[in-house]
Amino acid sequence: MASKALDVPAVALGTWAWGDSGEAGDGYFGSRLSESGLREVVEKAQSNGLTLWDTAVVYGMGRSESVLAQALAGYDRSEYQLSTKFTPQIAGDGGDPVADMLGQSLDRMGTDYVDLFWIHNPADVARWTPPLIPLLRSGAIRHVGVSNHNMEEIALADRILGEAGFRVEAVQNHFSLLYRSSERAGILDHCREHDVRFFSYMVLEQGALTGRYSPAHPLPEGSSRAAVYNGMLPQLQALTERMGAIGEVRGASAADVATAWAIAKGTTPIVGVTKAGHIDGLVRARGIELAGEEIAELEALADAADVDTRGFWEQGM
């Protein structure tokens, strides 16, 4: 009944920014994403074994899913994995909102199944988990994950699925050097002990941990991420400089080190990719082995920065 165990690459590829309006200069990052540019991203990723693509209905209200499908056109469905999400906050009022939202995602992505289907935010675990069971039975979804859920909610979802012979196979939470609440709450340990894949998102903290920004070179004024992060840049400088130095001796960037740290913690980072060059960084990150003392040093510098990067959509863990 259950399909084979979830098997994923070292890094998953995020397509949140692919859901921009399609108007030039009107992306979330003021980006100008083109069909040919995204096709180049896909080709480079696929040829490097980075084949798990993470999207969601709410990324541009379906646009990210459509654009992703377009960029993957021509690849055999067995050559890539699709990860998308049911977001309770936008559930329709039909008899089966979960199946309805999945059906629309499948249509947009031109496929009859998703490899990984997430309950995006915890709304009412007892309500939204049971409708996944018939979709697992039919094969329309292969594996189930929960995102932004705390330990209690993960356990409840797992219990509900367990009664039907399935389980929560993946957890996706905000996790970075600056935000380690899932580790402190015991969620990482739980995932290790129960063979659950932990996906970390925002490992680069929307650019604040790439080493590209500093008090002298802040994030672009007027952007939502500038509002969140620019005030923290002075506190982050010691950390990002050390990340840069650790990267430099390995021919890598501070961003690569942030991603390598998340891999070293036993997690699968989901990193947003909009340029082919981003794939080069992920390939470098995948090859970096950080020493235990380097990990400890980075975490100590991150703790000393003492900043709170919890998203407005997140509950405490």
UniProtKB/TrEMBL annotation:
Keywords, comma-separated and alphabetical: Oxidoreductase
Domain NADP-dependent oxidoreductase: 11-302
Signal peptide: none
Any Pfam family hit: Aldo_ket_red
Top-level taxon: Bacteria
InterPro entries for this protein: AKR (IPR020471), Aldo-Keto_reductase (IPR050791), NAD(P)_OxRdtase_dom_sf (IPR036812), NADP_OxRdtase_dom (IPR023210)
Protein name: Aldo/keto reductase
